[in-house]
Amino acid sequence: MVDNPIRRIANAISDFKSKVYGKEQFSEDFIRYVIIACLNSVFMFCVYQALYWLNPLQAYTVEFAWFFSFIIGTIEAHYVHRRFTFKSTASYGESLYWVIFVYSIILVLSTLTISTLINMFDVQYQVAWVINNILFGLFYFAGLRFLAFPLEDASDA
Known about the structure:
Elements: H1 5-18, H2 23-54, H3 61-85, H4 92-119, H5 125-148, H6 151-154
């Protein structure tokens, strides 16, 4: 479970090369990922918008709304990606550990990005949210596919 992330990625890539995982399977996984990620994004946006409007801190409104909607969205996303996108047979705890690992890195980077877009470049907060999700979408897919739900975990699905 607590593998070195670089070793885990290298093992996942070698498994992809040694097993039958062609363009067709990749396309199916990616299409499922995009559809489910869009649904997850709608859920996360609703939470983001509600927290933005509530503005409980009266300061750092955007960052607060992004951070907490991200945390809530991560919990929801783990379940649906595990169950529907990658149809993983990995243990729940192991996949959750790696999802949290991947999402934590992206959380830090994306919070800095959304703050920069809004505070430095005066991008409207909802547009910044969309830009941020598009920027990090491929990183999510790669992290989920290679770390959280590698091919050897989904082979029986």
